[in-house]
Design a protein that fits this description.
41% of the residues lie in helices and 17% in strands. With 456 residues, the chain is α/β, with parallel strands linked by helices. 48% of the residues are buried.
Length: 456
């Protein structure tokens, strides 16, 4: 079979987050997932909460050595705000500083570049009680936290990211009620999204002022929006969905401001958030160096069935395209070309920014049934990764500035209310024994990372 080759500079790595891998080991303050589990433990699959994870806190040396054995040249994780600064404000905890120093030193010794994210859905509980991202005092506290991270770790971290999926606190926490604080209010969701991007811009400004070497960016869960048809009604629904879910986060990060079309829409619908003096200038200073693109599934929409419906359903409804391919364990559509469409849009419509695919992966339930001689034969994951990489390669051939690919995830990790229902890793984790076992996909990725080649 003919092979296709990626540039020598193209990096292959993996991603995870602090709250999904570290757990409650060591000394750590509470974040909103801890609060949610305390209040609604029944909402979590198998009753497994955020204190039970893959224990990276104690196994990081073993895990980093395993990354290197799979030829992964980079790994994205996050600093847990409530671990570094319990309560979210004040002086960094010395034990946390020591832990993260050791992790980043170990990664650099192993030749695994740290890509470090500052926020992955884990708002300190005390700051959420003060209003979270709706409160600009909390935004200011986040910027001070970012400043502390740059000061403490900036000499060993070359790639910084302000947020993972800034859409998610707004959409999951305040629009759909799927994450804590489980609110359903479109106007408040818009305010939260605005607060998150103000925090992003403030952190970018702090990074520039700090003189820290390297790059700073943001990781967006971009999803190409496909209307059901070319009708004016469906096209309008698609445009509104794209503005709210993509443009509201991509435009400030790339262009330093909000699309005029989005501002008009929010004003017309009485959804405009409160704006602080100096915000326009702040956003103009918040342009990034490197964009992370998380891609899992497309967004398919149609004109609303009931224009009088409340909330987001006034503007569009989801559309289940007949014949679409579905991951039955997660309920998400698998549409590999979507990653090509995203990279092409960035190239054609947004100045072709430096970017990389920062998450992409397939979660499957009860993977042990596929084990042969102790190794999980996850050929479905190999096919999923390969088919997405083929489209990424096509985008590269056409001039995309995509620099690398990070799989979600390096090892099986805890996943919010889904806990360990679905496993995503190249490496299996037995959470009872914390034993790590490389899956078939891990061996396949070892060769891809080494050769920079996949089957064409």
């Amino acid at each position: 079979m003919a092979m296709i080759r990626f540039p020598d500079s193209f990096y292959f790595g993996a991603a995870a987050s602090g709250p999904q891998t570290e757990g409650a080991a060591g000394r750590k303050g509470r974040h909103i997932m801890d609060v949610w589990f305390q209040k609604e433990p029944q909402a979590f699959h198998g009753g497994i909460g955020p204190s039970v994870t893959s224990d990276f806190f104690h196994h990081y040396k073993e895990d980093i050595a395993l990354m290197r054995s799979l030829n992964l040249d980079s790994y994205r994780t996050s600093i847990v705000w409530s671990r570094l600064i319990p309560g979210g404000e004040g002086r960094p905890d010395p034990d946390a500083v020591s832990f993260y120093n050791d992790v980043f030193d170990e990664m650099n010794r192993a030749g695994v570049r740290p890509f470090v994210n500052l926020f992955h859905f884990d708002m300190p509980a005390e700051l959420q009680e003060r209003g979270g991202w709706e409160n600009r005092a909390v935004v200011d506290a986040y910027v001070r936290y970012a400043e502390a991270c740059f000061r403490l770790f900036g000499d060993r971290v070359g790639h910084w990211f302000t947020f993972n999926e800034p859409l998610s606190p707004a959409k999951d926490g305040y629009l759909e009620g799927a994450h804590w604080p489980r609110i359903r209010d479109l106007k408040r969701a818009v305010a939260v999204g605005y607060g998150v991007m103000a925090a992003h811009a403030g952190a970018v400004e702090a990074f520039r002022k700090s003189g820290t070497a390297g790059s700073i960016g943001v990781i967006l869960n971009q999803s190409p929006v496909y209307p059901r048809s070319d009708s004016p009604e469906d096209a309008k629904a698609g445009r509104i969905a794209d503005l709210l879910f993509n443009g509201a986060f991509l435009a400030p990060a790339i262009h330093g401001g909000y699309p005029e079309e989005l501002s008009r829409f929010l004003k017309d619908e009485d959804l405009l958030p409160a704006v602080r003096d100096g915000d326009l200038e702040l956003f103009s200073r918040g342009r990034i160096d490197l964009l992370g693109v998380n891609y899992y599934q497309p967004t398919r929409v149609m004109a609303p069935a009931d224009p009088r419906a409340a909330g987001i359903r006034r503007y569009f409804d989801p559309y289940d395209m007949p014949g679409r391919k579905i991951n039955p364990y997660r309920g998400w559509e698998i549409y590999e070309k979507g990653v090509y469409d995203l990279l092409t849009d960035l190239r054609v419509n947004h100045g072709n920014p430096r970017c990389f695919v920062s998450e992409n992966g397939m979660g499957v339930e009860n993977e042990q049934r596929f084990a042969v001689d102790g190794v999980i034969r996850d050929d479905y994951r190999i096919g999923f990764i390969r088919d997405h990489l083929r489209w990424i390669h096509k985008a590269l051939e056409e001039g995309s500035a995509c620099e690398g690919y990070h799989l979600w995830a390096f090892m099986d990790c805890w996943s919010w209310h889904n806990a360990y229902k679905n496993r995503y890793g190249l490496v299996s984790v037995d959470i009872a024994t914390q034993r790590r076992t490389v899956k078939k996909s891990g061996g396949w990725m070892r060769e891809v990372s080494r050769t920079k080649e996949i089957e064409g």
